[in-house]
Amino acid sequence: MGTIRDIATIAKWEVRRTVTQMSRDTLPIAIVLFLLLIAVMGFTAQSGMHLQDGMYTAGVDDPVLAQVLASDNRFTVYELSPAALRQNRQSFDLVILNGTVIAGDTDRGRAAQKTVQRDYGRYTASVYNRQEDLFAAYPLWIDTEGVKSELDFTSTQSGQYISARPGAAAPEPEGALLDVPTPSPTLAVTSDDLRTSLTRTESGNSQIARYTEMLTSSDTGTSFRTPSQLSPPLPFDSIILIFVFIFPLYFCSQFFMMSIMNERIERRGELLLSTPVAPATIIAGKMLPYFALMLAICAGLTLYIGAPLPIILPLIPVILFFLANALVIGMVSRSFKELSFISIFFSTVATSYLFFPSIFANVHVISLISPLTLIILALQGTAYTATDYIFSTSLFWLTAGVLFYIGVRNFTEERLFSGHGLLTRIREFVSSGLPENHPFASLFLMNGFLIPFVFMVQMLCLVLFFNLPMPYSLILLIVFAAEIEEMAKALGIYTLYARNPGFFSWKNLLLACGVTALGFLVGEKLLLFVTLAEISESVFGSVLFLSLGVLWLPLLLHFIGTLTVAVALKAGGRKWLIPGLIAAAAIHCLYNLYFIMGWLA
Amino acid sequence: MKAKHLSIIVKKEFRGLLNERTILLAILLQLFIALFSSFLMVGLTSMYDPSSLAKYSRFRYSVAYVGNDSGIRDYLAESRDFNVYDMDLSPAVTALQERKLAAVIWVPDTAPDAMEPVKITLYTIENDLQSAIVNVKLKDVFLAYEKDLRTVRQARITEQPVPLAFNPARVGNDFYEFVYGLLIPLLLFMPALIASALVIDLITEEYQHETLETLIASPVTFTEMVWGKVIACEILIPVQAGAWLILLLINGIAIENVPAIFLLVAVTSLVPILIGALVALHYRERTFAQFIFSTALVVALLFALAIPANPLNMVTRLAVGSAGTEQWPALACVTAVAAILAVLLHLYAGRTGKEHHTG
Fold first, then answer.
1. Domain B50-153 adopts which CATH fold?
2. ipTM score of complex
């Protein structure tokens, strides 16, 4: 009971202090800026985004087509006589002469032709949309039916297809025949509805939609599309909405970061530390107002856009993840500059992790790595399952938990007010997690708990490399995954070594490598088992997680990798850390290559 | 203001940046963003234009054709992207689910010149990258057939669009517009965001770490100190922008008018740095200064984007080489804004300095 009261008291302090610290005009100015923001957004929506204006120059001999191009800001259009155009052909990126597009043979000319194609497509659509007889102008309609296939992740690896080699005869299905009803040959909607949806697509032609039009399949409102509307769907609106959710979260976590940092400036937090309250309570108390605020903002936004409240659920681990990182960043950085750079760095990486996979929502299961995809799905009206939830949020829960633990362990006078450099401080922080009296047990645990971080970084690599064509994506992933794992395993060894080089007698060295390998393996298998079965069974998974059944082989690999680094450290001292890491990663890569190649063959 | 004093402050700030190795972090950040954006480029351009992805594979997709014979059947058979099989609906969809097919197309027996439209049903695998590519390839087939049907029904169409023929050999991609019209302006102005956040840190740090008294006791005046910090941050701009340009060049992206771009970026970046310095002087406390500044920056950025011939657009035009004389008035406007802000900062710093010396 006492703890809860303490937390409440500290939370109250925190709120009061923030309010009194706020200079008197902060709130009014913030409100004015907010109003300005709304005004400017209105202005921008009206005037459009002028980012690509005047990229191309075009000469046109036909007034109608000149009008079509002039409506696109990317073109500077000159309407000239055919003779003048022929003469000055070279001074344009693109010329339209007698109903033919002649583009310059440069990248810019080709890009200009592509843009004209798009503009012309829009123009033809606007002409056909006005037709009395809609089905003469649009004689072909396509109804797309999705078929669920269980193989999802394993089967489509970045441009590689698992579809059987085409033979002369039609493929024979192996399983029981599905009973597929013959589709109706007629459209179930009136031509008026179709016309409305067609014109809506057309009028969505604002300046901002220019960036989206190639991405989105126009949401026609019906499931029927004309051939030109057929393109892979990208939930662009939802993705923009995601940013609306994520940005306030960044701001709030910034405030928390600063609040932690402020305790450390001029040893202001000494008073708080001298009270008999446990560090965990202090942190919880200081964090509570920010957590509540973030939750309230998310709930408010959700209600405002009229979305179902459960979409907050995937956001909770994200909020905690932000706060945990803010805590640690606020504790390690020495100056404001450092704080700024680390937090910008963190937010860039975190945004990539959260945002990038969600672009592929509806396209590929890889998108589920990001919790934001769950929100997009929920907004689109697709319910996500508990498995999906565990799959995309478990890493966030786990890493947040570990970071909080590190924060609590190090929330002491010695660590908070030390003036050491960043890397030393990080090592000290890790060091507190490795008590001197149980070095091996803690090394085992530490490596187990490192796994969520390793997975997270590896997932980020997977997301990044996923887009590359096949052999490259796999090779890059093999190299990066090996390097990341070896670095993670070396972290504990290096910390122990830096604390006390004499600790590593040969016996201790072997033992330490052994428990590191074991901890790593156990953590890996446990987490895989719980969450990532979907990915671990693909060829990418076999690179990342060595999930090839046999246990002693990966154990041996982890052991040898760690041993390489440890021996390098023992023999050559700290300057041999990097060469040791490279050697270990090389061994790791070779192992992976051998297995992948063997497996693929 | 003495140049010597300014350079003392500038040197002091750079030493601080080097000592803390924050500059390393900044470089790391840039590298990450560079790496990320090059992947984003491949990823997004393939989303922008999935056909760019489709060219990676010279695979022939197996497609089942079900129902009435039509022009689609012929186009599919002609296409080098597809193998067509005539099948019944149920086995075809089952085979699709088992991934033995890439798509199933069902065509009804609607006559080409019928009053009602031809409504075909396309079965594809849900949530699948391959389906996205197959869709793009099928789209060409469907478009060709749509054109045929339109010709059959053209007597019923009252107004035809002005015809326009394209040269199929000049196939462009969206890569160009994405790189020049989005990536380059964003990358080149990113250092400005970093530098303006930095200037706030440098100024508020003097207040919050209570190092101001020592500074006031030195011969350096308060105004000189503020300007020294602004200059230190401004120096970072061309360095970082140059790094970006070199990275882009290494990636084989040609950029024209590099000196003019440098000039424009350097002057424009001064605007957020000066705003940052003003906000920091006013609040003297990092949390709120950064908060107000970031909000103000979003407002300013959105506003700038809504104005034609804004600096970001000018960078795009300069980089592709389509900028005319309008770059000079644009540059003059930005310079004027920066000058006004500089005067404001100078006066404000002078007043604040006097307060500190007397108080």
1. D-Maltodextrin-Binding Protein; domain 2 (3.40.190)
2. 0.82
